[in-house]
Specification:
43% of the residues lie in helices and 17% in strands. With 403 residues, the chain is an alpha/beta fold. It has two domains: 155 residues, Aspartate Aminotransferase, domain 1 (Alpha-Beta Complex), CATH 3.90.1150; 235 residues, 3-Layer(aba) Sandwich (Aspartate Aminotransferase, domain 2). Strands 4-12-11-10-7-5-6 form a seven-stranded mixed β-sheet, with helices on both faces. Helix 2 runs antiparallel to helix 11 and helix 6 packs parallel to helix 7. The protein is globular. The chain starts with a helix and ends in a 6-residue tail after the last helix. The relative contact order is 0.15.
């Protein structure tokens, strides 16, 4: 039996469906963001990155880097174990306190990634409540879907941001059964925002818990970067607020915040937390500095929003098919996986602009797109170059213009 054929066949199927992903070999230089070196065919060339989730450029902030280096020199590179077995440093304790304060919650718990935090927290919380039902937005992230599947609980999927559908599903469930509504604040491929207040109102009416994923909002929205829930004054109405250190804070890692009792229960029961080496001290030290910096510098958020708004207007004025977005996400629609890949290949090869094509299964078939994420460091000149290149690529490939 040739086992390798199974693996080759799986990849070939992906290639046949035009879903095969090729990584850009990038070398970011601190202090030069959003520029990077792209290594290809034995050569290296300068490119402008337009698809990074390091939304505020915190990955190159000198204050963050200094804290990271200081932690490495004092505490070493690795944590040395799980949180329960020698892996909890005082920096981990401080960071959890900072994150709890950021979201107005009693406690926080760190995980090795945002994916792990959603998977571990959702599955553990719901498993602790016998006969729990999970109500999940149809567009929830793969990590939330994994947590729901691993919970083994009954699930009900409501149409994306459809409050009438969510209420119908809630009405069908026995009031005595535990219920958890799981959703995101910002949906990162379309850039839309959930009706958080309305979801909380329904949760109150039908006795449900709420679990919100704020990974594409923390650091970017709210007076101190607490996300959409902070901006809208709703933090105290959410049972669990989940976030990441990898986007607005420019580091790596995930976390949840909530009541002391809930967080302690996850800490004590979640395999995804218990049985893994914890985040390295240098990462945690850098994250503390980043969270504190972002909380204190609202002008960074204001600049980020200004850049995003300006780019969206430029894209629209150029007649390109911009999907309407109320956030910092700038989706430009293509609608075909082959053409989407060709467009991004041309942008990289001919214009030194790096944007990763977004195809199925990240987005539904027929909605393939370029997902552009401007930062405070993308200048007017860079935006003009981008829009000019997009217009030329659209003309060369005869892609659909704006309606």
């Amino acid at each position: 039996m040739d086992y390798e054929e199974y693996f080759k066949a799986s990849v070939q199927k992906i290639k046949a469906e035009d879903r095969y992903r090729v990584f850009a070999d990038l070398e970011r230089h601190s202090g030069n963001y959003p520029h990077a070196l792209n290594r290809r065919d034995g050569a290296a060339e300068d490119v402008v990155v337009w698809c990074s989730n390091d939304y505020l450029g915190q990955g190159q902030n000198p204050i963050v880097l200094e804290a990271l280096v200081e932690a490495a020199e004092k505490l070493g590179c690795g944590s040395g174990g799980t949180r329960n077995i020698s892996g909890t440093t005082h920096l981990h304790v401080i960071l959890e306190e900072e994150l709890a304060q950021l979201h107005g919650k009693e406690a926080a718990l760190l995980f090795t990634s945002g994916y792990v935090s959603n998977d571990a927290a959702i599955s553990t919380i719901t498993q602790l409540m016998p006969d729990c039902v999970i109500l999940s937005d149809a567009w929830n992230h793969a990590s939330m879907i994994a947590g729901i599947r691993h919970s083994g609980c009954e699930k009900r999927i409501y149409d994306h941001c459809d409050m009438a559908h969510l209420e119908r599903l809630l009405k069908e469930i026995d009031p005595a059964r535990p219920k958890l509504i799981a959703f995101e604040s910002i949906y990162s491929m379309d850039g839309d925002i959930s009706p958080i207040k309305e979801i909380c109102d329904l949760a109150d009416t039908y006795g449900a818990m709420t679990y919100i994923d704020e990974v594409h909002a923390v650091g970017l929205y709210g007076d101190t970067g607490g996300g959409i829930t902070q901006r809208e004054g709703l933090q105290d109405r959410l049972t669990v607020i989940e976030g990441t250190l990898a986007k607005g804070f420019g580091m790596v890692g995930g976390y949840i915040t909530g009541s002391a009792a809930l967080v302690d229960a996850v800490r004590s029961n979640a395999p995804g937390f218990i049985f893994t080496t914890t985040l390295p001290p240098p990462v945690v030290g850098g994250a503390i500095a980043s969270v504190r910096y972002v909380r204190q510098h609202n002008e960074l958020r204001e600049k980020h929003q200004e850049r995003a708004a300006k780019l969206k207007q430029m894209v629209a004025d150029a007649g390109l098919p911009l999907m309407e977005s109320v956030t910092h996400i700038v989706p430009v629609m293509v609608g075909d996986p082959v053409l989407c890949k060709r467009a991004t290949d041309m942008l990289l090869a001919d214009y030194n602009i790096y944007i990763q094509p977004i195809n199925y299964p990240t987005v539904p078939k027929g909605t393939e797109r370029l997902r552009i994420t401007p930062s405070p460091f993308h200048t007017d000149a860079l935006m003009e170059d981008l829009v000019g290149a997009l217009v030329e690529v659209w003309q060369r490939l005869e892609l659909r213009q704006a309606a």
